[in-house]
Specification:
single chain; about 110 residues; about 0% strand
Length: about 110
Amino acid sequence: MDDPNIHAYGEGGPDDAEIGRQWRENSSLEKWFPLTAEELERLRADNAALRREAHSWWTAARDALKLREPLAPEVIEAAAAEAFGYEGGLQEVNLGDLLHFARVLEQRHGIGA
């Protein structure tokens, strides 16, 4: 370092002469670069996984904020027929009540007005 007042390891750290002495005493990679290639690769994989997970959460949050269109009455009727097993339609069920129920569910999920 050009400036004698700047220390590589901070004010309380060893000076250049001490660093040189320690290097001559033990210049092994384990001492000076304690991170192994395997550890570095694992950390990179962990980082990539965390980045993917963060992106998934961000995308989910973004998509949750999008306004969704309420379901059309015929879609509700078809879904109810499928769910309740009505082959020939919903003659047994009051369609108005079913539509009201669907709208209440949509509102509770933040869909529609």
